[in-house]
Design a protein that fits this description.
This protein is of the alpha+beta class and about 200 residues long. It has helices at about 5-30, 35-40, 105, 120-130, and strands at about 50-55, 70-75, 80-90, 90-95, 140-145, 155-160, 170-180, 185-190. Strands 4-3-2-1-5-6-7-8 form an 8-stranded antiparallel sheet, with helices on one face.
Length: about 200
């Protein structure tokens, strides 16, 4: 028969094991763009923390969700006012001060309004890939940008689909989505490109 102390230890161990399993499962999922902001904060100065200018991915490979992301923070101390953290599968790969010469002219060097960052990359991707025009296509890849627009932060989701005849994939256009409320701002889809 187990003593009270042994029973307590066993219960404590079981709770700790379940907590670890849940945490491990959460980290097994691909981090979203907004998750990467928090992951990147320790690699930039305190003056740049949470001051996002742009987030972008590379074209995904092997799945619809991109693995390579760039989070650009405002850095008042840098010559071109930006510091960029590159992530691969949620892990920091590089920290640099990118060459952003045109951004001060186009206004792309300004900090995104964080109060309007409510639609994350996974939600934007889901909205874009569920467009009715795409229902008969096999989507193969996406690429995302969180950028400035006249109405506030906006996701641009570029889409690729498997070619219907032959091999490879085709660029079938993009969908722009408001980061504030997830509404579609603009669609520029041409599914016929997959023919």
């Amino acid at each position: 028969m187990k003593t009270k102390g042994e029973s307590f230890k066993l219960k404590t161990f079981a709770i700790a094991a379940m907590t670890f399993a849940i945490a491990r499962a959460a980290f097994a999922a691909d981090p979203t763009a907004f998750d990467l902001i928090n992951l990147g904060d320790p690699y930039v100065g305190v003056q740049s923390k949470d001051k996002i200018v742009q987030i972008r991915s590379e074209k995904s490979a092997g799945s619809l969700t991109p693995d390579i992301w760039y989070v650009v923070y405002y850095d008042p101390d840098a010559t071109l006012k930006a510091v960029e953290v590159k992530f691969g599968a949620g892990q920091k790969m590089d920290v640099s001060h990118p060459l952003r010469l045109l951004e001060p002219i186009t206004g792309e060097d300004k900090i995104l309004d964080s109060s309007k960052l409510k639609t994350d990359s996974d939600q934007a991707q889901q909205i874009a890939t569920s467009q009715p025009l795409l229902k008969n296509l096999t989507l193969t890849a996406t690429q995302l940008w969180l950028q400035h627009s006249d109405t506030g932060p906006e996701w641009k989701v570029e889409l690729w689909a498997a070619k219907l005849h032959g091999s490879g994939d085709a660029d079938i256009g993009s969908v722009n989505i408001s980061a504030a409320d997830g509404s579609i701002v603009k669609t520029d889809l041409h599914p016929g490109s997959a023919d």
